[in-house]
Amino acid sequence: MLKKLIEIGQLISSSLEMDVIIEYTLQSLKEVVGAKWCALGLRDKETGEMVLKGSLGVSRELPGKAERVPVEGTILGEVLKTAKSLIVEDLAKYDRSLRLPYWSKDIRSVAVVPVQARGKILGALIVCTPFPRYWEENEVGYLSIIASQVGLAIENAQLYESLREYYMSVVRTLAAALEAKDKYTQGHSLRVARWARAVAAEMGLSDKEQEMVYIGGLLHDIGKVGVREYILLKTSKLTPAEQKEIQSHPSMGAKILEPANLPKEVVEAVLYHHEDYGGGGYPEGIAGEKIPLLARIIRVVDSYDAMMSDRPYRRAFSQKWVIEELRRCSGKQFDPAVVEAMKKVLERDKSTWI
Q1: What digits encode the pLDDT tens for the residues 203-221?
Q2: In terms of Cα–Cα distance, which of 96, 257, 236 is closest to 167?
Q3: What DSSP line would sit under 282-321, residue for residue?
């Protein structure tokens, strides 16, 4: 039991993903105490109900994940109110003034342990067996320690998610600030971000890489805030000096983002998203796999969306023409593998064609 306690503690503390934390916790409980059914519920601050976030060994008579369970006048409610564990060895002999929030003939014994963090009751661990059971002191201690560990891990996961949402709102605000300068690019950054994430998924990139390329897509043109507005909206041919100013936006974008401590992958995606796969792009003229993969993905989807959109100096091209252009420039401007992935994404979900 001690070995399992150390193992599950390490697993729980190593993750910031709520589902992973809950899965590790419940599997451990089921293995160590031999439970027929175990669940972890978190209290809804607004309604006071318990929301089951995960369960193992569920039968048809017992609630499943995401089900809301009223707790008033129940064993769960007592645990949440007193912040003390409640152990029932035989429900058939238990005082029914406090009942389970559900009933199943499968349940004869139950242990409910509060999940806490920093003095706050977050929810409860619920462990049931189909037979009367004497719960040994070390088993109850094990449940209490696991509940404490999972409470801190859940609080950290909630804090992380809150910070992530704040972070993403700031990123979206930056993208919106850029697009406010140019009515022709409104929505462009969000579309690029979504296409980039879809292509990354098609190429088998990890969830983290998919998120990085999504953020890079949102911010790929942020350096254009330093480009004079008349140049962005100019309908005639740009002068060499104006062209040079436009081409400075990837470097400018990287300089804007670096002090914000954004992930290196995001900054590099912004810096290199105008490099050509065959060489000759900007700002550094690097080629092939020297260009970071996330930048190569944004290069393709950015070009796709730009060609599919109206610009001050031209109307949008047809979708058929754009696909042919991507194919024609594959291996020159664009990474062939990314072009193939983009084509598969488009073919799979034609409803998203712009």
Answers
A1: 999 989 999 999 999 999 9
A2: 257
A3: SSS---GGGS-HHHHHHHHHHHHHHHTS-BTTBPPPPHHH
